[in-house]
Amino acid sequence: MIWTRLERNVGICVVVALLCTVGNAQEQGESKVEQLEKKVEGLESQIKQLRDQQQQGQGEVDESLDEIDEQMLGLSRSIADQRPGKRKFLVTGYAFSGFENAEGEDSTFSAGFVPIFLWKLNDRLFIQGEAEFELEDDETHVELEYLQLSYILNDYMILSAGRFLNPANPFADRLHPAWINKLPDAPLAFGAQRIMPFTQLGVQLHGAVPLGSQKFNYTVYVSNGPTLEEDDTNYGALEEDNFTDANNSKAVGGRIGYFPLPELELGYSLELSQVTASGSDVADADATIQSVDLNYITSVAKGTLDLRAQWAFSDVDNVTFDPTGAGGFGPASLNNERNGGYVQAAFRPSELEGSILSDFEGVVRYDAVDLPSGAPEGTDESRVTIGLNYWSSASSVFKLAYQFDDTDSPGEDSDALLLQWAVGF
Amino acid sequence: MKITTMMRRLSALPVFLAGGLLLAAACMSTSDIRNQDDISRPTKSGSELWAQNCRRCHNFRSPSEFSDSEWDVAMFHMRVRANLTAEEYELIRQFLKSSN
Q1: pTM of the model
Q2: Which among A276, A295, B16, B70 has the fewest CB atoms less than 10 Å away?
Q3: B55 contact A CB<8A
Q4: What DSSP character marks residue A61?
Q5: Among A265, A258, A267, A343, which residue's Cα sits nearest to residue A298?
Q6: Count of CB atoms situated within 10 Å of the CB of B80
């Protein structure tokens, strides 16, 4: 009986305990589920956030890639724009600004801009043109200084046509640009009182031929040539701006330059022409213009010595100007022989490394013209010019020069202070 | 025609004779100097030719002053203006383009 009650009680307790245990377990399970559910929800939220971030990041990456693509496209276009084709073009040239204070004249500033346009159309065909913009008096002077079409015939021969710098006149042909000319002005015979033309309008054949260690260059040309001035102010002189030929006769000329040493060139040139204009009452006159030149450039005493010389001779037939006297100054005649030129020496201690002296250059030039007695445009004149140049770069130079002038006309000597800044580009 | 005029015309003869001979020589030659053995070739390097030829007129322009493409044009300009031979032109051009 006792055991029966005890068993019953134990059984009841066990049942109660089991029930309690089950109840607790059920409660605990429910809370874990809730926790797990919360964790799952949290994870889902994190995954969603990550997805959102990934999508957002992908968008940024896509945008960046698009930007890079656009930049690459732009670069490709830029490269394509810069890529040279067969035709190649270059603008070069020079500019200058100067000041001149000459005795007996008003001092003045001056300036000029001279672009040169170059086209290399292919391996044989080349076009070059030089425009000159210069301030003169009260206006801007614009001129097509030269326009030259050239064709390479072979290794030693080039055919050129158009208006070209006179190859018979080395100063005009090579040395006149302001950044090359070592003094602010040109020698009289190739500047103010021209003995020979500065340019030619015609056709030329030119080139160079090596002969062992030596070399020579040559030019032969046919051109309109100069015309004879017949006005009372300059009769007897030769006018070179003969763009529409004043007669049916063409000038023929040429130059040969010989290099016995690489540093030395000796040149001789000759031009023959009939210079009287068609229909003129002045008799036909022939002109013979000759020129000799020397160019010697060498390294000496830690510097560069630059020696130049050129002398030209012009001989025009003696003719009578204004033969009827209708012009009010004739009949007049001249022994129409002229000569003029220059000798110039320059030294720059260019090999003095680290010294400011290497940028300075001293120059001295003697130039002169000998005109016919009675020539209306002037008298014999000679000058000595002393200059000091400062080269701020290979193609930028500041020039300071003083010129001592001596003319045959008493009281007309015109010494001058010259300043110029010239830049080649 | 006056005798003096005739003499002047005749004095031009050597110039044009030389020109004619050059023209004839040119017509016989090809455009490639390397095929010719009868005329001496420059034995100097591009830098030597650059130093010799350029300063005959002006200061040296630095090779870095122009790009390769610009040197092609500038050197062609100089070939025409300074009467460089084809060999001189090519060697100087190569030197400038390799040094800029």
Answers
A1: 0.78
A2: B16
A3: yes
A4: H
A5: A265
A6: 23
Same domain membership, residue A183 and residue A63: no
Q: Which of A83, A114, A134 is the last residue of a domain?
A: A83
State the Cα–Cα distance between residues B85 and A68, nearest whole angstrom: 49
> Distance between alpha carbon A292 and the CA centroid of its chain, in Å?
28
Return d(Cα A422, Cα B27) in angstroms, integer: 43
Size of interface A-B (CB pairs under 8 A): 147
The C-alpha of B67 sits at a distance from chain A's nearest C-alpha, in angstroms, of 11
The span from the first CA to the last CA of chain A, in angstroms, equals 132
Q: By residue range, what is the domain housing residue B56? A: 42-100
Q: Do A90 and B70 touch (CB under 8 A)?
A: yes
Taking alpha carbons only, the member of B32, B92, B86, B26 closest to residue B56 is: B92
In terms of domains, do A79 and A225 share one? Answer: no
> Are B2 and B50 part of one and the same domain?
no
pLDDT for A263 equals: 93
CA distance A253 to chain B (A): 8
* Per-residue model confidence as pLDDT tens digits over A377-388: 888 999 999 999
Identify whether residues A199 and A302 lie together within a single domain: yes
Judge whether A360 and A372 are in contact, CB under 8 Å.
no
Domain total in chain A: 2
**Domain enclosing residue A19, as ranges:** 1-83
Q: Are the beta carbons of B16 and A155 separated by less than 8 Å?
A: no
Which of the two residues, B21 and A217, has the higher pLDDT score? A217
Q: What is the CATH number of the domain that holds A298?
A: 2.40.160.10
Among the partner residues A213, A257, A272, nearest to B12 by beta-carbon distance = A272
* A14 — pLDDT class (breaks 50, 70, 90): low
Per the structure, how many domains does chain B have? Answer: 2
- Give the gap in angstroms from C-alpha B98 to the nearest C-alpha of chain A: 17
Assigned domain for B14 exists: yes
- Best of B32, B68, B81 to disrupt the A interface by mutation (most A CBs within 10 Å)? B81
ipTM summary value: 0.76
Cα nearest neighbour of A154 on chain B: B31
Q: How many helices (H) and strands (E) does chain A have?
A: 2, 20
For residues A246 and A274, is the Cβ–Cβ distance under 8 A?
A: no
Q: What is the CATH number of the domain that holds B54?
A: 1.10.760
Instruction: Confirm or reject contact between B23 and chain A (CB < 8 A).
Output: yes
